[in-house]
UniProtKB/TrEMBL annotation:
GO terms for molecular function: kinase activity. This is Sugar kinase of the NBD/HSP70 family, may contain an N-terminal HTH domain. Pfam families: HTH_24, ROK. The keyword Kinase applies. Keywords: Kinase, Transferase. InterPro entries: ATPase_NBD (IPR043129), ROK (IPR000600), ROK_cs (IPR049874), WH-like_DNA-bd_sf (IPR036388), WH_DNA-bd_sf (IPR036390). PANTHER family: BIFUNCTIONAL UDP-N-ACETYLGLUCOSAMINE 2-EPIMERASE_N-ACETYLMANNOSAMINE KINASE, ROK (REPRESSOR, ORF, KINASE) FAMILY. The keyword Kinase applies.
C-alpha cells in the first residue's frame, strides 16, 4: 500500500516523480481551499494539467479522505460533470493566541471553519520557564478535551508578541532559553508540529482573510494593545522583511521625551500612544487629583488597561480624555505610515480598538492633520471586524497554509 499524502508531505527524503506528485496535490488542495468546489475541466484549465493527470491526483486525494466527489452539476449541454471539493473534517489545525493575561485557543477544519473556541483562558505571560510550561499544559488540556482523532491534528499555530522568526521557529522576546527553536521545544512537549508567528502579523492575516477586508490588497493592521504592533500586507501577502521582524511600529522614535520604552530606548511611539502609556498617564492624573469611577472600587496602583477601557465605555470622563490623547499620538504615527506606504486600508484592532469612536475619531483627525492629503484621501480607516478572534483565525489559517503549502 502506498503512502498517504500526509506521510509523503512529512517525508523530507521524497524526490523525483514522488516529489512532483506531492507538489501537484498541494496545488489541487490550494485551488479548492481558495476558490471552492470545481470540476475536472475547471482544474485542467486553471492548473494547466491534462484531464488524466487531474483525474489521477483526485483519485489519490479521495482515497486519502481529503477530497470528495459531490456528484453531478448542471451543464449547458452533454454529459453533466462531477463536482469535487475538500472534505472539511479530514484535517484540523489549532490556533493559540497569547495575550498578556490570558490566551485564546481555537480549532479549525480544512475549509477554515472554526469548530471549537476557548477564549480568555487565564494565563500570565512572563519570560520564564514556568510560564512556558503553563502554556504547554493549557494547550495539551485543550487537545485532551477534543473528540476528533489526534492524527487529524496536523499543526499548531502559536502567536507571540515581539520578535519572531517564523521561518526558523525562534522567539527572541519570550522564552529564548535554549539554542533549540522555541517551536521545536513546544512541539516536543505536545507531539504535534508547531509554527510560531508574531501576534500582530497573525491578526492582520486573520482580518485580511475573514474580517473587514473586501478587495483591498495593500493593508496595514494596527494592533493597539499594551504595546503597538503592525501587520503589513503587500499585494495580499504578509510582509516580513529580511529576518521576519518588520512592523516594529511602536518603536519609531517619534517623541522627544525622557520616558524609557520597554525596548530600553527613549522617545518611542509606545511611550505616548500604547496601552501601557495610557495606564501610566491615568495613574499620574489620579495622583494629581483627577477623579474617576475606577477609584470607587480600586486602588490606583491596581488599575489596569482593561479597567480604563471599560471605564471609557461607561462614560468615564478621565478615561475618555486620555484615550483621545493616545489616539491623537497614534494618528501622528499612522500618518507617517500612510505617507510611506500609501495603503488602501488601515485597520485598527487590539484591545484599545474596543473603545471604538473614542479612539478612532482622534486618530482620524491626526491623520488629516499630519499626512499628505492626496495620500490619505486614498486610504480607508476601519475598525477590526473580528476583534479578539482576529489572531486566533489568523493562526489557524497560517498553520494550515504553511503545512500544506497553500497560498
Amino acid at each position: 500500500m502506498g503512502k498517504t499524502f500526509f506521510e509523503e508531505l512529512n517525508n523530507e527524503n521524497v524526490t523525483g516523480v514522488a516529489y512532483k506528485n506531492v507538489s501537484l496535490k498541494k496545488t489541487v488542495l490550494s485551488y479548492f481551499a481558495n476558490v471552492g468546489n470545481a470540476t475536472i475541466a475547471d482544474l485542467c484549465k486553471e492548473l494547466n494539467l491534462s484531464a488524466p493527470k487531474v483525474t489521477a491526483l483526485l483519485a489519490d486525494l479521495i482515497q486519502d479522505g481529503l477530497i470528495k466527489d459531490y456528484g453531478k452539476v448542471e451543464s449547458t449541454g452533454g454529459r453533466k460533470p462531477n463536482l469535487y471539493g475538500l472534505v472539511p473534517d479530514s484535517a484540523f489545525f489549532i490556533g493559540v493566541d497569547i495575550k498578556q493575561n490570558h490566551i485564546n485557543i481555537g480549532l479549525s477544519d480544512l475549509q477554515k471553519n472554526l469548530i471549537k473556541v476557548s477564549e480568555k483562558i487565564p494565563y500570565k505571560l512572563d519570560n520564564n520557564k514556568e510560564s512556558l510550561e503553563s502554556l504547554c499544559t493549557l494547550i495539551n488540556d485543550f487537545i485532551t478535551e477534543l473528540t476528533i482523532p489526534r492524527e487529524k491534528l496536523l499543526g499548531i499555530g502559536i502567536n507571540l508578541t515581539g520578535r519572531i522568526n517564523y521561518a526558523t521557529g525562534y522567539s527572541y522576546s519570550f522564552f529564548y532559553f535554549n539554542e533549540e527553536p522555541l517551536s521545536k521545544i513546544i512541539e516536543s512537549k505536545i507531539g504535534i508540529r508547531v509554527f510560531l508567528e508574531n501576534d500582530s502579523k497573525s491578526m492582520a492575516y486573520g482580518e485580511f482573510s475573514a474580517g473587514v477586508v473586501n478587495h483591498e490588497k495593500n493593508v496595514l493592521f494596527l494592533n493597539l494593545d499594551h504595546g503597538i504592533g503592525l501587520g503589513i500586507l503587500v499585494n495580499g501577502q504578509l510582509y516580513y522583511g529580511k529576518s521576519g521582524y518588520s512592523g516594529e511600529f511602536g518603536h519609531i522614535p517619534l517623541f522627544n521625551n525622557e520616558i524609557i520604552c520597554q525596548c530600553g530606548k527613549k522617545g518611542c511611539l509606545e511611550t505616548e500612544a500604547s496601552g501601557w502609556a495610557l495606564t501610566r498617564m491615568f495613574k499620574e492624573r489620579l495622583l494629581e487629583g483627577s477623579s474617576s469611577i475606577l477609584t470607587k472600587n480600586k486602588n490606583s496602583a491596581d488599575i489596569k488597561m482593561e479597567d480604563i477601557i471599560n471605564a471609557a465605555n461607561n462614560d468615564d470622563v478621565l478615561a475618555i480624555e486620555l484615550i483621545a490623547k493616545i489616539g491623537e499620538n497614534l494618528g501622528r504615527g499612522i500618518a507617517l505610515l500612510i505617507n510611506l506606504f500609501n495603503p488602501e486600508l488601515v485597520i485598527l484592532g487590539g484591545s484599545l480598538a474596543a473603545t471604538e469612536e473614542y479612539i478612532r475619531l482622534p486618530i482620524k483627525s491626526a491623520i488629516n492633520k499630519y499626512s499628505l492629503s492626496l495620500v490619505n484621501q486614498d486610504t480607508i480607516l476601519k475598525m477590526s471586524k473580528l476583534g479578539e478572534r482576529a489572531g486566533l483565525i489568523g493562526a489557524c489559517l497560517l498553520v494550515r497554509n504553511r503545512l500544506l503549502s497553500l497560498s
